[in-house]
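Please go through the sequence line and token line underneath and see whether the fold suits the sequence. See right below:
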Amino acid sequence: MKISDCNNIMDFRRIARRKLPAPVFHYLDGGADDEWSLRRNTAAFDDYELLPSQLSDVSNLNLKTTLFGEPIDWPVMIAPTGATKLFHREGELAVVRAAEKFGMFYSLSTLGTTTIEDVAAAGNGPKMYQVYVFRDRGLTSEFVERCKISGYKALCLTVDTPVAGNRERDHVYGIASGKLKLRSVLSVLRHPRWLYRAVLRNDLEIVNVTKSGRPSEFSDMSVKDYIDSQFDRSLTWKDVEWLAAKWSGPLVVKGVQTVADCRNAANSGATAVMLSNHGGRQLESSPAPVDCIAAVADALHDKLEIICDGGVRRGTHVVKALALGASACSIGRGYLYPLAAGGQAGVERGLGLLRDEVERTMALLGCDSVAGIRSSFVARRN
């Protein structure tokens, strides 16, 4: 199967599974515990029906909207995902270039494998940087300053990782401990190009941390151990206020799901929230993001932009989320499967298919603009 044969996002998953070593594919594909939240993130969209308005003029469709004060060509953004070069040698740069072609926001993760500066230089599209408030506030402050200098338009704070989720597939294949099981080693050996990049080229370095002003920190521990030591369980909304003041621009809080937490985010200086359970990789049994939209939108639509982050695989998913009150959707696995399948060309084909689905859904729904997508177009199934 080639990327030209792919007709939807999940088709790329089949190619990705073949091209990646088993431990890497399952790191991408897996979730926490029994993976109920992982499955539910996508399955929950099936609980909503679209209600078309027939004989509506849809001869001129307009998918354009704004996000974080910036114009975008359609209401989907690239979510921040760590270690993108795990999945393809082109890594983050392939994705940021594809995102620019499609007029989308691109988000770079703190745990990415390309620097803040190199991503900024790769294209002129709007960019967001995902950050953690580390124990070492100086490291977080350094990231913020580098983003300001590099022209990032928004900052995203992830708040759902006081500890790592129990991702059992990572234990099964040994990627969690770094000590691969025999079957994982054999799988890696069957992928010599991947092995060459990982070992000889050292493509998987978490460069924004290792190239920070704190290299001496790594003399007594690995980079992974250093990063793990930086996650702070004592964080409160006061830390969000601190970050908002330091950034003084659009601030997105990622990993909230309740009205109370979203209200706290707004009161702490956030301008947007990403309703997210970390792709089903953190708290098992947390709700699907799409199921959180309506309540948050009813309570806070005038105070926050709302991003549905999790489970989006189809254009109908995007339109349902917008009808429920979201400002936009974000995709993680939705672009990582295409990236693993075919690099930048894979991402571009995947984004093109998804965008076509959004446009087709709007036409069949009888809605000619993103601004015109309203709650009357969606209903929860009985």
About this structure: The longest strand covers residues 251-256. The chain has one domain: 3-380.
